[in-house]
Amino acid sequence: MIKRTLFIAARIAAVFITLVAVVLVIMFTVNIILGTKPYIVSTDSMSDTLFKGDMIFVKEINPSGLKEGDIITYTMTNSNIVVTHRVVRIEEETGFIITKGDNNQSEDAPALPENLIGLYVYKIPGFKFLVKE
Q: How far apart are CA 86 and CA 104, in angstroms?
């Protein structure tokens, strides 16, 4: 009886692992086709839209294609810190992109168009274990 239970448990685990592998292969194939890059959200500054540990996928976009309300990923000026926040406005004279986290009280420092990584496309939740506390 115990051998049969272990056998069934092993089969269930094998099926689960296979399904996860298939989903991952499909997910990364779709990303290659769509031209998106994955990033892990490391803070809750975009809660209720994006949460710490969400894997987000970002697609390259020309800064001229941005509009208010878009969620973008960019590197902070003079830094390697990657930020994903919502576009509040775009300053026409300078081209600076002004963003703000949905859960933040104030706007971010202006982002330079050349620091734009891309536009948020979609997310997969559940990768919080990858985020350092």
A: 11
**What is the pLDDT, as a whole number, of residue 124?**
86
Per the structure block, which two tokens stand in for 125?
A: 């939740």
| Separation between Cα atoms, residue 120 and residue 70, nearest integer Å | 8
Q: List pLDDT tens digits, range 101-111.
A: 999 999 999 99
Determine the distance from the C-alpha atom of residue 63 to the mean position of all C-alpha atoms in its chain, rounded to a whole number. 18
Give the separation between CA 108 and CA 100, rounded to whole angstroms.
5
3-state secondary structure of 65: helix
CATH C-level class of 37-130 = mainly beta
The pLDDT value given to residue 111: 95
Distance CA 131, CA 133 (A): 6
